[in-house]
Amino acid sequence: MEGRGSEAQQPPGGPFFTRGEVAKRNSCKEAWLVIRERVYDVTRFVEEHPGGEEVLLEQAGADATESFEDVGHSTDAQEMLKQYFIGEVHPVRRSHVFWTTWLIPLFGALVIGLMYRCYMMDGKSS
Ligand code: HEM
Fold it and tell me: Are strands 32-35 and 85-89 parallel, antiparallel or unpaired?
């Protein structure tokens, strides 16, 4: 029973998946779920789910946090999640930062370019 009881400290990080990547795994051939920002590959669990495969397939590729919690799954069920853990949802903020880091200089360059053009045209007309 070694290693049990450390479930609160699941390794942070791990591979990151975007919600788009998860959304592609929405069939019985490949079924991924997001629960509390973590990604679970439940493909081999679908048929074994005590609550039926229907409900899992319905949520496949999506964020099932709410439905998972609404059912009031037992601690056993929470424990089972660990077996299917494959990674985390890519933090939204990162892609946000990625875009703004590019957009701001791009916008700045555009403004400077326009100002320069106006300045040049001004020079020509006078
Ligand atoms: C990997 C994710 C999941 C695991 C490991 C899991 C596990 C389990 C387990 C072990 C049970 C038996 C009862 C219990 O121990 O609480 C159960 C029941 C159930 N589950 Fe899940 N479940 C998962 C996801 C979901 C999702 C996403 C839904 C809803 C869309 C769902 C709906 C249900 C329902 C309706 C039952 C029957 C509850 C009852 O009979 O009272 N489960 N699940």
Answer: unpaired
